[in-house]
Amino acid sequence: MTCDLHALCFDAHDPVRLARFWAGVLGWETTGDPRDGVALLPDDDTGFRLRFLPTREQKSGQNPVHFDLKSTSPEEQRETVARALGLGARHIDIGQRPEEGHVVLADPEGNEFCVSEAGNRFLAECGFIGALACDGSQKVGYFWSEALGWPLVWDQDEETAIRSPHGGPKITWGGPPLMPKTGKDRLHFDLAPSPGGDQQAEVDRLISLGATRLDIGQGEVGWVVMADPDGHEFCVLPPR
């Protein structure tokens, strides 16, 4: 039994505005499912939606997860950067070197993302969202491969990557050194039991793989808050 990656969730001070930004960058439409709140549905094989959840907490440090957006040509890279800037993004410096070729930006709430250089072979078979690049250990890459049932497509020098058998973005973990955790992650995964699955059985399975349950003050809610082996939060939703 596995679970499905239902959504990548953004904590946002203004969920509607941030959703509007990412809809403009990605060309996605909002979902009409009231269970998702403010959310965008993919128009390609991405396989998961984006949800935008209200928060009052301030961003603290660099996010451990960011998008790598693919470019098929230098012109497309320039167009993507210009579109994002026009929607409210800004250039940022996180220590990248000019020879690396990708452009590092932040969305209107400071969430980092990259627009890759043309000809990036690692992203060649992926769509516009080429990868979710994560800070994380080799161990956590193995955990997520088992949790989602996605095969490893890279496992070298403690760097790992997985990809759904149905296509879509790769999820990558860069290996050590790991960034210090500075508070609750502003981006997290929402998992849903596979059709016919059971939430508690899924929670128990994830614990057996190395996850832990968390109490972040969520109170009596229908979802279960957990952490992966590196301590990054995710949620297990009730069956949908």
UniProtKB/TrEMBL annotation:
Residues 125-239 form the VOC domain. SUPFAM superfamilies: Glyoxalase/Bleomycin resistance protein/Dihydroxybiphenyl dioxygenase. Coiled coil: none annotated. It comes from the Bacteria. PANTHER family: CONSERVED PROTEIN, HYPOTHETICAL FUSION PROTEIN. This is VOC domain-containing protein. It comes from Microbispora amethystogenes.
